[in-house]
Design brief:
The chain is α/β, with parallel strands linked by helices and 452 residues long. The chain has helices at residues 9-19, 57-60, 69-81, 93-105, 119-136, 159-165, 190-203, 230-242, 265-269, 298-302, 323-337, 340-360, 389-400, 422-443; strands at residues 36-40, 43-46, 51-54, 110-116, 146-150, 181-184, 210-215, 219-220, 226-227, 246-250, 277-280, 292-297, 365-371, 374-379, 403-404, 411-414. The termini are far apart. Bound molecules: pyridoxal-5'-phosphate.
């Protein structure tokens, strides 16, 4: 058998087709996947040597570029010292140091770090913390047992995360098994914030029902890059806290600079709102290792202290606090602390801002918007479903131009790695205009396209 790195383009595709089952994919109708063998900076390379701009940072995980040498070296060095050890009854330097640095960078009142291995598990941990927090404090059955969440939120694919995100409509086959959550309008613009707060106030008339509110601060990613103002998020936090609920921030996507600050929570804190629990993952290791962390306040942590083992958080994963993941995350934080990442984030945000006027007046687009390094808009279309013909057409049209995108229905967005060069991003915007022109021709009367 050939070693993996020696597989050519077609052998790779053949092997994949024979054995792999891809995520979020209808395997019967899916086009062949992009056979990627190498990554460097903002680019991915196929076995044929073709180069693609990774305009979505590989599902939003990559920050400083693919195969960044400093992170790669940190992982290699750690692998030679200690590749893994269980984290129950054991500790190790990268886990302890990373926890300290995550807390130091986080806004108050974060004090403790619980590790897991992906965004969904970080949320699962956050939810279990919130529910058990109240049980440990003596909540009677039925009290503090529900959750408030925002419509269109996406929190992952494990059962608790699905329950908190069921309004997004991704989980129909599993609905009978999802626990009770009350959803409120998100408040994505000044015009809907009032409704969002009115719905929250209505639920908070009976606060004893609820353990917590969970939200994605500033940007709801997977439901279409729906953006919220920090003032609105802060207001929801204040009202939830006044009613005695815990506040959970799902920063799986937003943390590590996407919104312009290391944690989106920083911008909410400036407006007087705070979280009790923050879940992070994706960018935690700069896109190198599957790893997550759930940060909590001292008050949440203290509620689990007892002489009874049953009051502990009896949750863990074999790879909790994996040293290789921790080493990657420490190297990732080094890159932020050296400052260049912040300069790059500001540069990317500036380029998005330069393009906003052109997008705002484009006849085929709606609602262009930006938050930090994230830019999004909707293509005018009646086909808005995830995986719809529009999103497939867009994905292919950009691939033809050497750019990897993954539209959310008719929402197209850039979430580029921070190392993306100015020329690359400018070229991506020029390509966007070209793709829109193709799209416009297909829309023209008599073009005969059944897809759109
Ligand atoms: C906000 C948010 N929470 C949770 C998740 C789930 O993370 P993972 O895919 O690592 O399980 C995602 C994934 O996109 C996300 O965007």
């Amino acid at each position: 058998m050939k070693p993996t790195h020696a597989l050519n383009h077609s052998d790779l595709l053949q092997l994949d087709q024979q054995y792999c089952w891809h995520p979020f994919t209808q395997m019967q109708t899916a086009q062949a996947p992009l056979p990627v063998v190498r990554g460097q900076g903002e680019f991915l390379y196929t076995a044929n040597g073709d180069r693609y701009f990774d305009a979505v940072s590989s599902w939003w995980v990559n920050l400083h570029g693919h195969s960044h040498p400093a992170i790669a070296q940190a992982i290699a060095k750690q692998a030679h010292a200690l590749e893994h050890v269980m984290f129950a009854g054991v500790t190790h330097p990268p886990a302890a140091q990373l926890a300290q640095r995550l807390v130091r960078h986080a806004p108050a009142p974060m004090a403790k770090v619980f590790y897991s291995d992906n965004g969904s598990t970080a949320i699962e941990v956050a939810l279990k913390m919130a529910f058990q927090f109240w049980q440990n404090k003596g909540a009677t059955p039925g009290q503090r047992s529900k959750l408030i969440a925002l419509q269109g939120g996406y929190h992952g694919d494990t059962f608790g995360a699905m329950a908190a995100g069921q309004s997004s409509g991704f989980y129909d086959p599993f609905k009978p098994w999802l626990f009770g959550v009350d959803f409120i309008a998100t408040g994505t613009c000044a015009c809907t914030e009032e409704q969002s707060l009115a719905e929250l106030d209505q639920l908070l008339l009976h606060p004893q029902q609820y353990a917590a509110i969970i939200l994605e601060p500033l940007i709801q990613g997977a439901s279409g890059m729906r953006m919220m103002r920090p003032t609105h998020v802060a207001e929801m936090c204040k009202r939830a806290h006044a009613a005695g609920l815990l506040v959970i921030f799902d920063e799986v996507f937003t943390a590590f600079g996407r919104t312009g600050t290391l944690y989106a929570a920083e911008q909410v804190t400036q407006q007087g709102g705070q979280a009790d629990i923050i879940a992070v993952s994706k960018g935690l290791t700069g896109g190198f290792m599957p790893m997550a962390a759930t940060l909590t306040s001292q008050a949440v942590y203290d509620a689990f202290l007892s002489d009874q083992v049953g009051q502990a958080l009896l949750h863990g994963h074999s790879y909790t606090a994996n040293p290789l993941g921790c080493a990657a995350a420490l190297a990732n934080l080094d890159l932020f602390e050296q400052g260049e990442a912040f300069q790059n984030m500001a540069r990317i945000a500036d380029i998005h801002a330069q393009w906003m006027p052109a997008l705002a007046t484009h006849p085929l687009l709606e609602n262009p918007r930006q938050c930090g390094t994230v830019m999004a808009f909707e293509l005018k279309s009646s086909h808005t479903q995830y995986g719809s013909s529009v999103s497939q057409w867009l994905r292919q049209a950009f691939l033809d131009e050497g750019i990897v995108v993954r539209p959310l229905g008719n929402t197209l967005y850039w979430v580029p790695p921070y190392c993306t060069q100015t020329d690359t991003l400018q070229h991506a915007y020029q390509t966007l205009l070209k793709v829109l022109e193709r799209w416009g021709h297909l829309q023209a009367p008599g073009a005969g396209s059944e897809l759109f």
